[in-house]
Amino acid sequence: MSTVNLVVNGKSVSADVQPRTHLADFLRDTQNLTGTHIGCEHGVCGACTILVDGVPTRSCITFAVACQQAEVTTIEGLDDDEIARELRAAFSAEHGLQCGYCTPGMIVSARDVVLRLDAPSEHDIRVAMSGNLCRCTGYVGITRAIQRVVEARRARGIAAIPNGHRTALGPSGSGHADAVAAGATARAAAPATLAAANKPAAAASAAPRKDANWKPQTNFTQSFTVSHPVDVVWDFFGNIPEVASCLPGASLAGDPVDGHVEGQIKVKVGPISAEFQGVADVARDEASRTGTIDGAGKDKRSNSATRGLIGYAVKPGDNPGQTRVDVNIGFTLTGMLAQFSRSGLVEDVAGRLIGAFVQNLEAKLSHQASGGTGAAPVVTELDAGSLVFSVIISRFKMLWAKITGRRT
Ligand code: FES
Ligand code: FES
């Protein structure tokens, strides 16, 4: 046990805690401050956001012992805070909440927006609030509520405080990607395209991706089975545009040249719509029926960059006429969207994206096998925000089943 001394909502607190105890558990379990909600415990949803020394902080990924002597303010500590009071009224007026689970974290982050930004546009507010996810209300009312408070305060002559009395800016997980993003800019557009096959090209725009020192931050493997013969699947994987069309939101900028391809992929993550522009080099080996896709991409609006290396192997499935595909994904995601790159969560989300990919692949191969004309019906868009929540909910269900021994 370690002793931690904090000032919580203006009151000195001293307690013995396990070094692994995170601040949210500490506040809820030892201080009875249950207004701090816990959603994902991955630093993704923002439900647990509180202020540590005036800075919005995810308390689920902050160790209590790491906050020695810090001033902690929870939603309870904002009862009499002027901005929080105005925000509560505005959230009610603009229908900015339904179940209210996300609301304490929303109010803490929104207060920071009102405090710091002078005349934020709707887009500015959405970007600033992108670390707080709401599963039931949507973001229109929330954004309007914040805009309403900002406008009212500026109209009353209350100016923004650009740094909000802070020495560090940005919620945990953001603001660390500038150097990487700058490198990605120099290397031209970037991707997220899951295209397909050929040999690696040495195009100038892809040069930084050839950095021998690059290592993915996260690696994982997934497998899927397709109800079509291995030769058919392998041939299909050689058709880059067709493979790209199986990935919801992906499109190519033109025909592949020597295995080098440019394109984009659109993905919605909570309130943010990201559009990664990117390049990828694809390679495949006929003898081993393996291939790689080496890509990089950048979303200008969120200033997020990604670099990824996907390896796949196509082999006969367990039953005749089936094909098994093993996919290894290694990637690095930086910038605002990096908050979604926690290991495990991304793996689950990728599993759902791969599920949609397989569904489209099956549809196209069946369409092809039946001699159908025209385009096969495919899923063309996925909302990673809803995916994130379905992941969180499925995890809650698993946890509940574990605790109660009941099936969900
Ligand atoms: S519970 Fe902390 S970010 Fe979700
Ligand atoms: S109001 Fe229900 S999660 Fe946001």
Brief rundown of the structure:
Helices cover 31% and strands 24% of the residues.
Overview of the structural elements:
- The protein is an alpha+beta fold and 408 residues long.
- The chain is 31% helix and 24% strand.
- The strands form two sheets. Strands 6-12-11-10-9-8-7 form a seven-stranded antiparallel beta sheet. The chain has a five-stranded mixed beta sheet with strand order 2-1-5-3-4, with helices on both faces.
- Helix 2 (82-93) crosses helix 3, helix 2 (82-93) packs across helix 5 and helix 9 crosses helix 10.
- The radius of gyration is 24 Å and the shape is elongated.
- It binds FE2/S2 (inorganic) cluster (FES) (2 copies).
- The site of one FE2/S2 (inorganic) cluster (FES) has 12 residues, from loops.
Distance between the termini: 36 Å
Radius of gyration, in Å, reads 24 Å
Q: How many β-strand stretches?
A: 12
The overall pLDDT, averaged over residues, is 79
**Residue fraction in strands:** 15-25%
SS class: alpha+beta
The best one-word shape is elongated
- What profile does the largest beta sheet have? 7 strands, antiparallel
* Helix run count: 10
CATH superfamily of the largest domain: START domain
Helix content: 25-40%
Strand arrangement within the widest β-sheet reads 6-12-11-10-9-8-7
Bound molecules: FE2/S2 (inorganic) cluster
> Residue ranges: pLDDT <50 for 5 or more in a row?
169-210
CATH topology of the largest domain: Alpha-D-Glucose-1,6-Bisphosphate, Chain A, domain 4
Could you state the order of secondary-structure elements as H and E? EEHEEEHHHHHEHHEEEEEEHH
The appropriate CATH architecture of the largest domain is 2-Layer Sandwich
